[in-house]
Amino acid sequence: MSSDAVNDPRESSLTAAVLTPEGRGAVAVVGISGSGATAVCSKFFQPVGARPLEVTPHGQIRFGAWRNKSDETDGTTAAEELVVCLRAVDDLEIHCHGGVAAAAAVCESLSSAGCRIIAADEWLALREADAVVREADLALAKARTARAAGILLDQRAGALQKEVAAIESAIAANDCASAASHIRTLCDRGGLGLRLTEPFRIALAGRPNVGKSSLLNALVGHARALVFDEPGTTRDVVTSRAVFDGWAVELADTAGVRTTTSELEAAGIAAAVREHGRADLVLLLRDASEPAAAGDRELLERYPEALVVWNKIDRAAATDLARLTGLKISALRGEGIDELIAAIVGRLVPDVPPSSAAVPFTRRQLTVLSDVVELAEQRDAAAASRRLKDLFAAKVT
Ligand SMILES: Nc1nc2c(ncn2[C@@H]2O[C@H](COP(=O)(O)OP(=O)(O)OP(=O)(O)O)[C@@H](O)[C@H]2O)c(=O)[nH]1
Ligand SMILES: [Mg+2]
User: What is the model's pTM?
Assistant: First the structure.
């Protein structure tokens, strides 16, 4: 958290918030600040060693036991072993076990001692003036990979700010056209930016029995979905998460698409089509060991942007294979899977931002930037400059 606080914790009212996403990591962090924060923690926290919490130098951590007094029944109290970090005067972080229960118990203790429990974004807003830094702190807690966290850390360290300064200079020089084109380039990275906290969605589509569930299993490396040599096996959407080249993805196996009289299968196909519609990328699987089918042509027309993948190459004649263009794999034998992953990454992140590049990563930032483009296109430099300042404003708009 930034030391550039909006409020001095010593003077502000006592508040605490769970700063980590619910149940995500092995460690949960509760932030507490405001007048009397250290004294309140001392009521529940017994550090290991003779020194009380109050005399711990700032910047140090203490390990010990947290006892919620309301747990007391027969004189003994169950204790949670945790770490307390003293950041500054009356400004602490409590690092307890991950999951929901430990952080909730700590908050319950703090609340019983008069501390107001608030949401993480509200807590950050009390301390940090720069909206992008606050959003980066929240996003960092949700980042699923080191690669995503690296890009978010760059934004927190000022990458976006630096780029915006150049845009501001262009607007100040009345060069609205160059400012607008600069921002458009920035906004092109927004698709990736929004996916730094949420995985890319990839849907597996195709006729029944072409090997979609087998491919899901090959991509995630374990038997997640049921595979059976009978068309119409998969009904529900079956999802599984993975990381491809440092990017978090969620794969969705879906029912094979065909005309059917079964109401149950039709419901599965309807769910499949919905899933294909909300995916960032559709993998359209075809069977290389069978003659071309009408169903494939319909799917190709429906999903012209899909990545076409020929499966079951182990069963196809070499001469037939030579005629096929596109990616060729055997989900059963694991052949061509690395090449497929490389192709998927190429489609999801066609332009990897250079190191330390500016990447907008929230919808709010993208809205502000697209408003500025509009104002710059109208050659209203004053309004464009005002709106651009909202990007880092103390109050989120
Ligand atoms: N020879 C061969 N068989 C495969 C391959 N991939 C899948 N199969 C077989 O094809 C059959 C169907 O596989 P699934 O993965 O269940 O196919 P699906 O597309 O999910 O089928 P539905 O759920 O019915 O739409 C199974 O018997 C698989 O073992 C492959 O690469 N080579
Ligand atoms: Mg299936």
Answer: 0.85
